[in-house]
User: Fold this.
Amino acid sequence: MMCMKKLFIPWVSLFLFFGGCSLRQYQTSEPKLIVLKTKKLKFSDTGYVRSAGDAVEVELFSAGQAAGRISIDRLVCVDNEGCLNKGAFNAEYLSRYYPDAIMQHILLGKPIFGRQSLRRSMEGFEQRIENREVDITYRVGGGEIYFKDRKNRILIKIKTIAAQKQKGKQ
Assistant:
């Protein structure tokens, strides 16, 4: 009986650990043009943004080949890097001054920093947040998400491919 408990605990631990990065059925899946420029992430090509509630996943492609994946739910999981809590992800990939759920909110096109300096527009909203640690311009609307932090040298742009094609026709 004791031997069974010793084997059971590691399997349960593995299940719980990987449960944070488990496969999920996403409700939306949209092709996007994605630009990620951070201290550790450098990417500019196509990808898919998939979501189910607050869970979101970005699958990145380069020249038509899968190049990586970032999944965010309770944890942030980066392909080949493992999973981190949101604060640790921010410290390693973005900025330690960011709120925990910032990447999740950006990918979902939701307001950040507790809706600070939120201005609604006809197409969406804009936020300008500036203090000692950050200088952020964040816009959502017209099929595009634009996030730029000048102080931390971070750029995230996500544009719906369908919106891009329609602009080209006009």
